[in-house]
Structure formats: C-alpha cells, structure tokens
Amino acid sequence: MQQGINTIVAPTSEAELMQRVEKISGLRLSELASIMNVKMPPDLKRHKGWSGQLIEQCLGASAGSKQIQDFPNLGIELKTLPLSHRMEPLETTYVCYAPLLNNTGITWNSSSVRNKLSRVLWIPIQGERDIPLTDRVVGSGFLWAPNPQEDQLLQQDWEELMDMISLGKIERITAKTGQVLQLRPKAANGQALTSAVGENGDMIQTRPRGFYLRKHFTFNLLQSVFY
DNA sequence: CATTGATCATAC
DNA sequence: GTATGATCAATG
Question: Which nucleotide is nearest to A195 (CA to C1')?
C-alpha cells in the first residue's frame, strides 16, 4: 500500500497539492478507498458524488457545503471528470447553485461561477459504466484556468442566463440555452421548489437550478492541456 | 444514443 | 430549502 497520502490536512502550497495529485494518479478507486479507510459502494447509482468526495479527502480539501473553493487558501476548486476510454467527458460538470432572486448587482466578475472556475484542479477518472467502480483508475490531475476566449464564452452564457433569470424568463430557459454553460434543475427531486421572478415581475415557485459546463467545453480544455 | 430534465446522499 | 459532491435515466 502507498504511504503518506492518507492525510486529511489541507495542503499549504500548490506544490504540495500537486505532489498529492501525482501520488493518487494511476490508483484504482478501491485502492484509494482502502488507503482512506472508506467503504466502497457497489456503484454510483445511490452515491453519485462518492468518487468526488473520496478525492477531496485524499487531497485534503475542506469538506462541507460552504460556497467557497475547495482549497480557499490556494484559490483552487477541485473537480473530478469522468472520462471514456476515448478521453471524452461522460458527464457535464456541475459548477454551482444558481441564484434566482436578489441577483441585481452581481456581475460576471463577482459571480460564483467565475469564482469557482477561476482556477480548477481537474482530476480525470475512468467513468465508463461497464468498468466496475472498484477498478476505475484515477488519471493525472492538472491545474487549469480559463483562457481569455474561454472566459469570454462563459461570461456570454452567464450574462444571457442571468438576464433571463432577472427578467422573469426562467421558465423559458432550457438546457439548450448557452453555448458552454447550461442551467439545469438541481434538487433532490422534481417536487423541490424555490422562489424566482415571474414573467410579470411577480414571485413564482420553480425548480432550483444549477450551472453546468457542457461536455464539449471540458473536452476542449482537456485537448488544450494535453496537446 | 446523446441530451435534458430528474434524481441520490449528505450537512446544516 | 440551500448547497456541496455529482450521475442517472427517460426521452426525443
């Protein structure tokens, strides 16, 4: 068994964080779970965030549901990325909860989306469903920050979506809206409701939403990093 | 068969 | 309910 990576202490530097990232690269999820003394679920059907939380623990990310980056002292957000054998993302990437109310005054620069995506540690993980969870291998994690073009695309979509939300057009937003950023339901189930601005500026109840990165966006950033 | 809309676990 | 970690699975 590997030594020295079963830490829960937050990394104090980027170099320290990346050393830990290198140490878990190439390991199967079962090996990682064993090292961390975490029980493995049979699959992800009822444990969708399991691998993400396992990696968090391995790297010493601060747990919890706080609206901050995973490594606040380093300004780095952690995201796992399920990949096919062709190195293509298998899922969209959740970014953050979408504010539906009281969002006047929020700009792209002060938005949660930009804050979360300003610097991301991506950890690729084999994600194909025919590979048993236990055998899926962790890939080489890498640091990424949006380049000017990516930042502009994200800003465009964010502004379009936030405008619609502010103007009471949230029910007109579908997952098709946005080139690289999507707004989709984000809740425990379809019955969950939250307040939002309606068509006439009134208050309506709607499904909570979250921001997600489209797969082609994460695919492209993978390409730019590895080629 | 890719995508959209729905859903699962957990902390507070 | 809000927010974190996400993937599932019905549907077109």
Answer: C1
